[in-house]
Structures are given as C-alpha cells and as structure tokens.
Design brief:
Ferritin; single chain; mainly alpha; 6 helices
Length: 163
C-alpha cells in the first residue's frame, strides 16, 4: 500500500468509524448509570429482554453500522447519491445517541418514543439509499432496523405501563 492510498484508507475509515464510536460512547454515558436504578424500577412488558442481551446486541449493531458507513465512504467522492445517503445515515446515528439521553438520561419514555419512531424511518431510508450504492452496506443495516423496530414497540409499552 502506498503512502497516498494508506492515508486515503485511514481518512475514509476515520470518517466512517469515528462518528459511530462517538455515538456509541455518548449513548452509553446516559444509559449505564441509569440501568440499575431508574430502569430497574420501571414496569416492563413480558417481552422485555433481560438486561444482559442489550450490550452484545448493540455492540454488534454498532460494528455493522461502522462497516456499512465505511463501505459507503469508500465509494468515489462524487458517486451519485453518496452524500445524501451518508447525511441520512449520520442523522439516524445522531438520533440513536439522543434517544439514550431522552429515555435514560432524562428518564422519559415518551421522549424516547418521540425520537425512536422518526429514527426508525431514517434507518429505513438509509437502507434504501445504501441499497442503491452498495447492497452489502444496506444489508448490514437490516438488523439495526429490526432491533429498533422491536425497541420502538418496547419503548411504547414501557411508556404505557409507566405513563
């Protein structure tokens, strides 16, 4: 690998992966301090998964998001639709981090619900835009859509039970 191609690879990786890591860390800052206290005290539906499942699921989803973003950022800069697809991707990523602050940080299931529904729409739109550019990148986000869809239902149920 030449110095120029190595630099280009590192720049692409940074643009793709660093925002995903930042979103992950920001979300965790709001989530972890509230699991044992506030979240444990909430009434939850019967389909609520055990707490231990969330860390491996979200770690996997963030890895898949980073891979998807890297594939799209690796496309030629002027590729038709690349800029818009990445903008939508980073918008849903930001909403993902904000959800943690609304739901866990502010102890607001309704705040989380008001975030997660449009977040899911952005994820689906990202998948559609990525599909046009790189089908593997789009497929990497399908588990995210499934989990956030489930989380939307769970968020709604928690809000209803704790209104």
């Amino acid at each position: 690998m030449t110095d120029i191609s190595r630099k280009s690879f590192l720049n692409t990786a940074a643009i793709a992966i660093l925002p995903v890591i930042v979103a992950f860390l920001l979300g965790q800052l709001a989530t972890y301090p509230n699991i044992a206290g506030w979240y444990a005290g909430l009434a939850k539906p019967d389909f609520n998964p055990p707490n231990w499942i969330f860390a491996p699921v979200w770690t996997t989803l963030y890895i898949l998001m980073a891979c998807a973003a890297w594939r799209i950022t690796s496309l030629p800069f002027g590729a038709d639709g690349r800029k818009t697809a990445l903008a939508i991707f980073y918008a849903q990523l930001a909403m993902n981090a904000v959800w943690s602050w609304l739901f866990f940080g502010l102890h607001s299931p309704i705040g989380g619900l008001l975030n997660i529904v449009p977040q899911l729409v952005l994820i689906l739109l990202t998948i559609e835009r990525f599909w046009r550019l790189d089908r593997v990148a789009a497929i990497c986000l399908v588990p995210l859509a499934g989990w956030v869809g489930f989380a939307s239902i769970l968020n709604y149920a928690i809000w209803q039970l704790n209104g």
